Amino acid sequence: MSAYLRVFRTLLDRYGPQRWWPGETPFEVMVGAVLTQNTAWTNVEKCIANLKAAHWLEPDRLATAPLPRLAAYLRPVGYFNVKAERLRSYCQWYIERGGYSALARLDTAALRSELLDVKGVGAETADDILLYAFGRPVFVIDAYTRRLFGRLGLVRGDESYETLRAHFETSVVRELARESAFAEDPETRAVAVFNEYHALVVIHAKDICRKKPRCPQCVLSASCPAQLRTPTRT
DNA sequence: ACCCAGGGTCATA
DNA sequence: TATGACCATGGG
Question: Cβ of A221 < 7 Å from strand C?
Fold first, then answer.
């Protein structure tokens, strides 16, 4: 089996399917994607709970929200002034563009372009939304992905976001095409694997890197000097 | 007390 | 194109 699928299988065997993204609706996924920027997910959960309790977890409500009050609900995620503005401008765009059903009619390239035009939505947030809210075949690149595959020696890690995304997408799709055990069409298969793959990378980071004492095989934490180059043996 | 967290924008060279 | 400053709370 090829390198990227071997890593995928190893993580899947260890942790099982993650069923991402955590969130009950596509809109909640979008909100979480904005709020989790450089922030621990446990803090995001508190803010989602705040918004739900206030009945503010709706596009119309957030699009017209007074920034000071919205920022107060968002306090636990940090950067709350910045994120209040980002979340509100995202919802304004979301409503202007016709909401989910209208956006879902766009092809993936057009939808990404629209997302990137929203202030506060960068490459990773856009891809989180494309993959986990719209079900598009996009491989999300984050700091964990760079660290893990960099330390595995499969990439350098300092490539541009788009370079890495194209690399992972083509590599995984190519490796999947050699598998004969799948019946679905290639795009459905890619979405399912990209979805699980990113989730497993993040779960692996939370599992390994946060333990104390730190796991000596850790390849994800920035503060862990250990190098693990053969984690994919089965 | 220090480091890190499922980034992004803006100013500068 | 590529760094660096900045945003800011919460848990280890």
Answer: no
